[in-house]
Amino acid sequence: MFIGWDWATETHDVTVMDDTGKRVDRWEFAHTEEGFTKTLARLRKHGAPADLPVAIETTRGLAVDRLLAAGHPVVPVHPNAFHAMRARWGASKAKTDAGDSMKLADYLRTDGHMLPRLEPTEQATMDLQALTRQRADHIEARVAATNQLAALLDMHWPGGKAVFADLDSDIALAFLERYPTPASAAKLTAGRLQAWCKRRGYSGKRPGSVLIERLRSAPTAASRLGDVVVERLVRVQVQLVQGIRTTIRLLDKAIADAVETHPYAPLFASMPRIGKVNLGQIVGEIGPLLERARTCEQLIAEAGVVPVTRASGKSRAVTFRFATNRRARLALTTFADNSRHGSEWAAKIYTDARARQKRHPHATRILARAWLRVIWACWRDGTCYDRETHQANGKINMATSKSSAA
To answer: Which of 42, 157, 199, 230 is the most buried (most CB within 10 A)?
Structure first.
């Protein structure tokens, strides 16, 4: 039996098809707990869940999680690939929910042997992945909030922006909370400003005389807003940035705690220049790829650090891979870029790539590809990373290969 599942936000359509292509069963259900419960029970009437693969146009979400938890093999079908196959069921390419579930089941019946299946990810890996992704979202929010604060200061108080750029971030935010308007900082002197910064642990990179000079020499804003409104705007934005920074610190601690207990972490913890957060990103994003990859080359392709070759007749193009796990690639290339500052082996691979006229992003992907072979070797053998072992025993191809654009 083969199952086609057309999913949506409010309703789902399911078709059950036998080996001959005959539709055995079909129904539609609402996106509710009752709907999922009845659907999974109805599917069990057609056989054991392990013998009922399900084709669906997504790799994540409630439907996928419920199917995996019930024991069904889940076969994700890319929407573009499925759209390209519509011509086989008619030239009109008509689209209905019932028709799509039938076509998905038929596609699984005829081409399912070539499609990869999802495997349930380890719970600890899923938890770590969620923490690192939440942190990445908060980093983006912090950057956006900080840019908004800078724009606000540039419009209403350029002097505050000039001082903000020189101080440590925590001290700068405290300064703006204490002195949110030009009027509130009018009585500041170099000595008072330096003493205030010192009480808050300022490194002293800029003396008070320089800070006060930047404050006074900045142009005067032509804002027509009153001081009360400007003060409220600045303080609210400062509190937003401080709140996001607090959540990031909490997430950093949660990630560090999760990494300490994760079974994969010891395999990669000794790699050069890999911190707790980046280690959490590597385990959370590369871990699921390791769990389902059958070969090292499959792992490299899914991580997005290998180029795509398109050849037909006399034409041949090697291009950047867009269809990939972008978060996994970002975590991996971040580590690779840092590692070249702590490993001569990594530095040589990077500099050799640069010598071949590769741009920095391309050279970093080449180095990331080499590190993935190390990660695969550690994963395959269940051994922790060791510089001498994993860079000298033939598991890593040290020879310079003909490269192409990654």
So the answer is: 157
Q: What is the pLDDT of residue 400?
A: 38
Q: Which residue type occupies 200?
A: R
User: Does 405 score more than 70 pLDDT?
Assistant: no
Query: How far, in Å, are 138, 160, 303, 363 from residue 360 at the CA level?
Result: 27, 36, 18, 5
Q: What's the CA gap between 335 and 271, in Å, rounded?
A: 9
Q: Which residues contact 312 (CB under 8 A, 6 or more apart)?
A: none
Specify the pTM: 0.77
**Distances in whole angstroms, Cα of residue 343 to Cα of each of 271, 331, 346, 385:** 9, 18, 5, 13
Q: How far apart are the first and last CA of the chain?
A: 40
In order of start, what are the domains of the chain with their CATH numbers? 2-114 (3.30.420.40), 126-256 (1.10.287), 266-390 (no CATH)
35-89 tens-digit pLDDT: 999 999 999 999 999 899 999 988 878 888 899 888 899 998 888 888 888 888 8
